[in-house]
Amino acid sequence: MSRLLPVGSDMHYLLIYDITDDRARSKVADLCLDYGLERIQYSACWGNLPRTLQEELLLKIRRVLQGNAAHVRLIPLCERDLGQCKQLDFKEKGGPHAT
Prior knowledge:
alpha+beta, Alpha-Beta Plaits, four-stranded antiparallel β-sheet, 30% strand
């Protein structure tokens, strides 16, 4: 992944990854947390990420993944799109809670 994405003041980013090696996947998740991203699923994190930190994070991820099969994608999400986001949260007992 060599292209960096444009940054706006109201931009969030979704970083998703498909990494076969458990140890490498855990290291990538830890890197994302270190850069202030929130882990929202097993292989997905999101949050604000300035351009300079995008470059730095992707470089560190590239180093961790050397020799491993992986696919990593950093996707910009504007405020308008986030405002249209739907989410279902399931509690252990009871039905879903839509937000």
